[in-house]
Specification:
Radius of gyration: 18 Å
CATH superfamily of the largest domain: 4'-phosphopantetheinyl transferase domain
Largest sheet: 5 strands, antiparallel
Distance between the termini: 7 Å
Number of strands: 10
Number of domains: 2
Shape: globular
Strand content: 25-35%
Structural class: alpha+beta
Helix content: 25-40%
Number of helices: 6
Order of helices and strands: EHHHEEEEEHHHEEEE
Amino acid sequence: MIHWLIQTQAAHPALVQGVPPSGLLGAEETAVFNKFKFLKRRQDWLLGRWTAKHLLQELIHQKHGGVVALDAIYILGGEDGAPQVQLKSEAAIPDSKFTVSISHAQGRCFCAALERPNWPLGADIEHIEPRPKNFTANFFTKKEQAFIQRSRPELADTLVTTIWSAKEAALKAIRQGLRLDTRSVSCQIEALGALPEAWTALQLSWERQADQSQLTPLSGWWKVDGPYVLTLAVQDDQQTQ
């Protein structure tokens, strides 16, 4: 089961100021945070931890009861940059191992979590807006470009944003990010009657790669949340909640 949460900087005044809210960070996280020089980086990083930790805190409470302090939930970057979860209170809940994915857009954070360690999972949030003229030609497959051209003009910005977001989610899931060509993954969306406000499946497939065996088959979902698109990519057919 995929669990998810959206939070904004308005959740706590300190997040807007780029200052850690009391009780949010552990010592190792504080050391990482203190290296950030730019306000936006500090804001985004804190909002990501705020969102992910509140999501994990609630999941732990649902399964085990009690409340784990936010600063006992460590979320630090691994060697590949992906967030890694470590519970400092593991003696009390030894069987809780999580994978999280964190994404930001315009002061808003979307976090997804699975109670499975080191599992291919990617979450992405994007603001729906017009893209540069050559955007699809530079970043989309020929099939994706043709889909956009066939679509209703009033849906173009949303569909371009969705395909881009799904690519980001997929590349996060395999822990490559934009180190890989975005055309290495193809996103297919079913014909639309209306933009989905509930999680809706989309298809993800790998292309332009010499060794397909090294790439993880992924399932994908998307939904529209006001002026934003949310996407998820995960190995297997995990359900969303």
